[in-house]
Write a structure and sequence with these properties.
Elements lengths: L2 E5 L13 H9 L7 E3 H9 L3 H13 L8 H18 L3 E5 H5 L1 E3 H21 L10 H17 L9 H17 L3 H7 L1 H12 L1
Antiparallel strand pairs: 1-3, 2-4
Helix pairs in contact: 1-6, 2-3, 3-4, 3-8, 4-7, 7-8, 8-9
Protein name: Exopolysaccharide biosynthesis protein
Organism: Kangsaoukella pontilimi
Keywords: Membrane, Transmembrane, Transmembrane helix
Length: 205
């Protein structure tokens, strides 16, 4: 089985973000209009230039977008999230993707429509995120959050037939990674509230 390494800019996956970080990431992911389909490998390569957090953020955001309606995509994105997040948690200097996963593709027009749907949330994030509560965006905190993302990703294939479940999990993971990506600890803290509530309810039941 072929594997491909993705080099991340920094070991902890963080860079000094611009004030348009989320929007810039979407710009980088926009497909070439000459291509009818876009491979996951190409998407990963583009996102990987921004580091671990952006790399996990992309499939999480896609499964939270209208693209999640494509049959089988939620399971595929869940596997991608789990595979990337576990390596993020391990602190690898380069991320590995199996060749079969890199070769999977999505329709370019559907991807573009999904990115358009994410533009408004991205502009909101650019406006209100800032570097704060740095302890929650440290390397150690990032690895712990990556473990949670891995668990969420692994759950997605099993929840494929449960309406909106994968989208909800994807949204939570996307917000977690957005907080790490923009180094906004307040966003990270807010993203932990739903899992804590769900855990408390499960324990109570």
């Amino acid at each position: 089985m072929a594997f491909h390494a993705l080099a991340c800019p920094e070991r902890n996956g963080f860079k000094t973000m611009t004030t348009q970080a989320a929007s810039n990431l979407l710009d980088a992911l926009s497909p070439d209009k000459s291509n009818e389909r876009v491979t996951l490998g190409d998407i990963a390569d583009r996102a990987g230039r921004e580091g671990y957090a952006a790399l996990v953020l992309v499939p999480a955001a896609l499964v939270a977008s209208p693209l999640s309606g494509v049959p089988g995509l939620s399971a595929l994105m869940g596997i991608s999230i789990a595979l990337l997040a576990i390596q993020m948690a391990a602190g690898r200097s380069g991320l590995w993707l199996p060749g079969w996963l890199r070769r999977r593709s999505v329709n370019a027009d559907k991807l573009e429509n999904a990115l358009k749907a994410l533009r408004k949330p991205a502009r909101f994030a650019d406006r209100y995120t800032a570097r704060r509560l740095s302890a929650l965006t440290s390397d150690i905190a990032g690895r712990l959050i990556a473990v949670l993302a891995c668990i969420g990703g692994l759950a997605m294939p099993f929840l494929e037939l449960v309406p909106f479940s994968s989208s909800i999990i994807g949204s939570v993971i996307a917000v977690q990674m957005l907080g790490l990506f923009t180094r906004d600890g307040l966003v990270v803290l807010a993203s932990l509230v739903p899992p804590l509530i769900a855990g408390a309810v499960a324990l109570y039941i």
